[in-house]
Write a structure and sequence with these properties.
Structural class of chain A: mainly beta
Number of helices of chain A: 0
Shape of chain A: globular
Oligomer: heterodimer
Radius of gyration of chain A: 13 Å
Structural class of chain B: mainly beta
Order of helices and strands of chain B: EEEEEEEEEEE
Distance between the termini of chain B: 37 Å
Order of helices and strands of chain A: EEEEEEEEEEE
Largest sheet of chain B: 7 strands, mixed
Helix content of chain A: under 10%
Shape of chain B: globular
Radius of gyration of chain B: 13 Å
Strand content of chain B: over 45%
Distance between the termini of chain A: 41 Å
Chain lengths: 112, 115
């Protein structure tokens, strides 16, 4: 089955700096890659996603890039703010499978 | 905004007891899920449910687990005889169409503590 690796496990940046989180996946049939933000005590919430026919997608301060050849995708957050502090999970969906396979999570801390 | 609701938010139980976790998915959604997250670890898939039957389940979802959609609104996860290692946050999720079409909506979770 699909296996998703995520790095780093923790990331501390100063407010205003950029943050980058990287994921790799194993199944070349994976075709959908969402990113979820999880705040303390809450369920994961989708922040951005990308499909396998697209190399990059941007939504305000958040962008995601996908390299299908290398089987990796990355989340980029620019101009970080304290409210960006949370755990971020990447995920992958393989073909017509009915499930998301999540990465191990990155705890992002944005300091003042 | 529509949301997935889960009850209870926290349940404490003794090992060997049965537990039922309840979820009300978003009303027009067709695919329903249970995921779990052991403290500090990643979110793990347990089971997916579509058209009144299980469409996929993980190795974690053994005979001790079952799911049911008893009426048009509720979706339940039952653990027949809880073990210490079942202690985790359990998330219900739903989506209108298949999961590669868009956002999977998660509830806020039910924390299960097995003593």
């Amino acid at each position: 089955g699909e296996n998703v690796e995520q790095h780093p496990s923790t990331l501390s940046v100063q407010e205003g700096d950029s943050a980058v989180i990287k994921c790799t996946y194993s199944d070349s049939a994976s075709n959908y890659f969402p990113w979820y933000k999880q705040e303390l005590g809450k369920g994961p919430q989708l922040i951005i996603d990308i499909r396998s026919n697209v190399g990059e997608k941007k939504d305000q301060r958040i962008a995601v890039t996908l390299n299908k050849t290398a089987k990796h995708f990355s989340l980029h957050i620019t101009e970080t703010q304290p409210e960006d502090s949370a755990v971020y999970f990447c995920a992958a969906v393989t073909g017509t499978a009915s499930k998301l396979t999540f990465g191990t999570g990155t705890r992002l801390q944005v300091t003042l | 905004e529509p949301e997935v609701t889960q009850t209870p938010s926290h349940q404490v139980t003794q090992m060997g007891q049965e537990v039922i976790l309840r979820c009300v998915p978003i009303s027009n959604h067709l695919y329903f899920y249970w995921y779990r997250q052991i403290l500090g670890q990643k979110v793990e898939f347990l089971v997916s449910f579509y058209n009144n039957e299980i469409s996929e389940k993980s190795e974690i979802f053994d005979d001790q687990f079952s799911v049911e959609r008893p009426d048009g609104s509720n979706f339940t996860l039952k653990i027949r005889s809880t073990k210490l290692e079942d202690s985790a946050m359990y998330f219900c999720a739903s989506i209108y169409a298949s999961p590669n079409t868009g956002e999977l909506f998660f509830g806020e979770g039910s924390r299960l503590t097995v003593l």
